[in-house]
Amino acid sequence: MKISEILDKNGRTPDKLISSLLEYQNSTLCNYLTEDDLREFAEETGIPLSRISSVASFYSLLSTESRGKYIIQVCYDVPCYVNNSVNIVEELEKNLGIKMGQTTEDELFTLEFSSCLGCCDKAPVMQIGENLYGNLTRDKIISILDSYRRKNNEQ
Amino acid sequence: MNSNELTRKMLTKNFGVINPESIDDYIREGGYSELEKAIKLDGKDIINEIKISDLKGRGGAAFPTGLKMEAVNQADGFPKYIICNADEGEPGNFKDRYLMENDPHQIIEGIIICAFASKINYGYFFIRGEYIKAAKIVENALEQARARGYLGDNILDSGFSFDIEIYTGAGAYVCGEEFSLLATLEGRSGRATYKPPFPTICGLYNKPTQINNVETFCNIPHILKLGGKEFKKIGTVSSTGTKLVCLSGNIRRPGLYEVELGTTIKDIIDELGMGVPRNRKIRMVQLGGASGPVIPESMLQIRLDSDEMRKHDMSFGSGAIIVMDDRIDILDILKRNIQFFHHESCGKCTPCREGLLQILILLDRFIDESAKESDLQLLEILIETISLTSICGLGQAAPTSVKKVLEYFREEFTDRIHTTASAVK
Ligand SMILES: Cc1cc2nc3c(=O)[nH]c(=O)nc-3n(C[C@H](O)[C@H](O)[C@H](O)COP(=O)(O)O)c2cc1C
Ligand code: SF4
After folding, report:
1. Rounded (to 5) percent helix, strand, coil in chain B
2. Edge-to-edge strands of the sheet including B242-249?
3. Can you name the residues that pair with B168 across neighbouring β-strands?
4. Which residue of B has its CA nearest to A16?
5. Residue A27: CA count within 13 A, CB half-sphere
6. Residue-wise pLDDT tens for chain A (155 aa)?
7. Which chain A residues touch B328 with a CB distance below 8 Å?
8. N or C: less crowded end of chain B, CB within 10 Å?
9. In which element (H, E) is residue B211 found?
10. For residue range A82-117, what is the model confidence (pLDDT) as tens digits?
11. Which residues of A touch B337 (CB under 8 A)?
């Protein structure tokens, strides 16, 4: 979707800015907002570019750096940690061949730490896009990642 | 007590019984009947009933809900707003997600009753961006409520009009703080500001605004149903009603449980959670979430009761109980807690932005056993300064766990002070 279309739908007032930025970002291929995007938002809404940039850098779900098609958010907080989330990170890094915060070369996956995902009863957990995965084990991680690879190949 | 006697289902009574996508199911279980009754009452009488119930906010600060409603009701200013705070982000908490995903209309009914009591015509349902499924369920429930005339113009022919808009956050824990939440709703970066004035007087767009937690709103229909006096009989003198507790960590049966306030932490862990796996010993339990106090096993008899907790300079916060067994390194856990707050700090004020970083540096010194005696004093001064001088609750509460470890597990620090003796070793 184009920026102007999203704004036509949501409105151009400041209170609609964050959700529109999010909606637009999630529709882009690389899950991020470029400087040109932010400039276009400013022109379209009349909200100063400085304020839009400040918003884009403040919220963790908004990114100004290119990311993969699938964003893997791994919980980093104590309930997950005491259920071995450290190994989860190792497994993911090993499987994907990247470190936390990086994107795979094929631009398929980005690995990010996330604050508590509110699923501590299923710790350790991670979220990929809209999908939550709990009670993670090594084998589960491998099969989840494979399912995304397959899904991508089929598209 | 066994687990059946311990659970007291009020807010969770519909869980698994109704389809959360179906308003008919909710109505079949008696839903929206309290709104139908309330809408024929005087707003002041509704507020009075809530005041009698002595319900306190479930978002962490335990502020009396009736007083908040009264303040909004009496405030000058038009329009007034009402906001449901579903930004749940405190590590260890998942109760609001369960409430939204299992019984969304219970929350909506509570919000509408409060809005009616203060003649508020517009509301926001603020859901954290990560809760995608919950947001969809709430959105669907709002549409159904609108279609049935519980929301929109002239609700149930009462002449009262009210609607709720859903708003999803974009990933920032601090946005659960009231002013930060308001800034986000207005389309700005969610940074906190000084209080007072409080949102009840000067909230969204500087208008009177009632902000309550999801679980708080869920209690409203039940109070009207039972009457404030009957509701007050549940729980203890200082903490009335039930509480949702989120049990996690090293525990056999993690999950969400609803108990009468006044229940001991020990009963919750042993009877509901079935204790720690593989018969390990409990080393430490954290209450409320990352910003909450930690206690040793010897204190587990403490009850979910504000007065009792206050004697120990604690509160049970929003209801998380994180159990940690004897394999953990306490300082490592503290480091994680502080890292969370350092990462989530909005950066507006120095004590929180810089102070938390300094705590991390000091913790590292103790962890690698290079700390000096004076580092302990420095740490204590730092904790005091951050708690007292930070602008918002994030910074004020962030060092709580460190402070409590210094109180209950002090040897964790003193044993790791670098001495010449240990240097020789
Ligand atoms: C950093 C911070 C985060 C908070 N996050 C939440 C939250 O996610 N949900 C919530 O209901 N209250 C949260 N609160 C508390 C709210 O500021 C506010 O006290 C609460 O929503 C009031 O509702 P209640 O009276 O029903 O508890 C947070 C407070 C702080 C300081
Ligand atoms: S205490 Fe922390 S989060 Fe709160 S205003 Fe200050 S810097 Fe921001």
Report:
1. 50, 15, 35
2. B255-260, B242-249, B320-325, B282-287, B294-295
3. B127
4. B187
5. 12
6. 899 999 999 999 999 999 999 999 999 989 999 999 999 999 999 999 999 999 999 999 999 999 999 999 999 899 999 997 668 999 999 999 999 999 999 999 999 999 899 999 999 999 998 899 999 999 999 999 999 999 999 88
7. 82
8. C
9. strand B209-213
10. 997 668 999 999 999 999 999 999 999 999 999 899
11. 78
CB contact (8 A) between residue A58 and residue B343: no
Structural domains in chain B, CATH included, are 3-232 (3.40.50.11540), 242-325 (3.10.20.600), 330-421 (1.20.1440.230)
Measured from the Cα of B396, ligand 2's closest atom is 1
Which ligand has an atom closest to residue B67 CA?
Answer: 1
For the CA of B346, the nearest atom of ligand 2 = 8
Q: Say if residues B357 and B382 touch (Cβ distance below 8 Å).
A: no
Q: Distance between alpha carbon B165 and the CA centroid of its chain, in Å? A: 22
Distance (Å) from the alpha carbon of B370 to chain A's nearest alpha carbon: 25
Q: Please give the Cα distance from B180 to B281 (Å, whole number).
A: 40
Burial group, residue B253, by CB count within 10 angstroms (0-12, 13-18, 19+): middle
Residue with tokens 């909450």: B292
**Residue ranges with strand state E in B93-147:** 122-127
> Which residues does chain B have with pLDDT short of 50?
424-425
> ipTM for the complex?
0.92
Alpha carbon separation from A84 to B250, B286, B338 (Å, rounded): 10, 18, 19
Residues B126 and B130: their CA atoms lie apart, in Å, by 12
